[in-house]
Amino acid sequence: MARSKSILTEARQIERAVMLIHLGARLQVLESETDLSYERLLRLYKEVAGKSPSKGQLPFSTDWFMTWQPNIHSSLFLNTHEYLNKVAALDEIDTVIKAYQLYLEQMQSQGLEPLLSVTRAWRLVKFVDNGMLTMTKCRKCGGHFVTHPHEIARHYVCGLCNPPARAGKGKPAVRCDLDADAAPAGASLLALAGGRPVGGPAPGPRG
Amino acid sequence: MNTEQILAEIREANLSYLMLAQSLIRIDREQALFRHGVSEDTAALIGTLTPAQMMRIATTNTLLCRFRMDDDVVWNLLTNHGKGAANDGMSRLHASILLAGRHQEAA
Predict the structure, then answer these.
(1) How far apart are CA B92 and CA B94, in angstroms?
(2) Which of A39, A74, A99, B35 is the most exposed place for a label (fewest CB within 10 A)?
(3) Reported ipTM
């Protein structure tokens, strides 16, 4: 019964849970990262979010992190996470929270839709801890990107240095309801008119 | 700009920088380390500066903060050198990823 003995510890955990709920975390994240009971977390969730948490399983596949745009967002988050990990001594979940806040800020400042949810970000860190995902240095730009382990580092080129042929083409138009902010209106028009890649650096030198 | 103006502008910029740095450190120390790219020791020091100390440190003929990108890769991404405006968003993201990966400079 005595889950958390110290009231101070409990207060800290509730504070953490509230922050995670604000960031949009699923209930499973809270259950895993705090010692609070399911019932209390459920009540807390309803109190903070004003609605019941979404049900169903968490996405468990690493594939999502490998697709082009999600990979870029995940890499930005994970680089930030690693930065905080290196320079500050924080509890793991606090590092995730702070790195995710910084990621959200960056999305806001660049006018982009955050594709990475806090649940996915948390999941990503777990995948890296378990060795199911890692970061590999891009041979061209020297940045570190989320990859499967055992990527041949000598030959790895990131999705930004070498975007897939169809990167950005047509996509913004199809998904404008999802990330209208992600693609500037002018840019998608350009893409429609000229078939020019939007949202990714040109594959080769262009004029 | 004459010398007096230059000195005044530099002091102004330094003071703004120090004040912002201090409030960011007081709001969230760890995130401030990321934002400023400074070490924990430096952050601790800035966090405890008094206004008089800040004023004294700011009054000099050099800027206290420096650019965090000193290589062509990041500069080219940020200035979008040789690329169309359509790629602007992705180039900035790319630059953010590269800058976020540079923790060795802070430690």
Answers:
(1) 5
(2) A39
(3) 0.86
Domain spans, chain B: 3-58, 67-107
Per the CB < 8 A criterion, the answer to whether A132 and A62 are in contact is: yes
CA distance linking residue B14 with residue A204, whole number of Å: 41
**Closest of A97, A8, A120, A108 to residue B28, by C-alpha:** A97
Residue A139 · residue A156 · CB < 8 Å: yes
Residues 53-82 of B with CB under 8 A from A: 73, 82
Q: Which residues contact A16 (CB under 8 A, 6 or more apart)?
A: A33, A34, A93, A94, A97
CA distance A48 to A90: 25
Compute φ and ψ for A145, nearest 5 degrees. -130, 150
- Quick check: B93 and A101 CB within 8 A? no
Residue B13 tokens read as 């910029």
- CA–CA separation, A183 vs A161, rounded Å? 19
B92 DSSP β-pair partners: none
Minimal Cβ distance to B34: which of A83, A142, A191: A83
pLDDT in tens, A37-91: 999 999 999 999 998 888 888 877 899 999 999 999 999 999 999 999 988 888 9
Structure-token match 């740095």, residue found: B21
Predicted TM-score (pTM) of this structure: 0.80
* Contact by Cβ (8 Å): A188, B93: no
CB pairs under 8 A between A and B: 113
Position B104 confidence tier, pLDDT thresholds 50, 70, 90? low
Q: How long a stretch of residues is chain B?
A: 107
Considering the segment(s) B3-58 as one domain, its CATH architecture is: Orthogonal Bundle (1.10)
Residue A1: other Cβ atoms inside 10 A: 3
- Those residues with Cβ within 8 angstroms of residue A111's Cβ, 6 or more apart along the chain or in another chain: A181, A182, B89
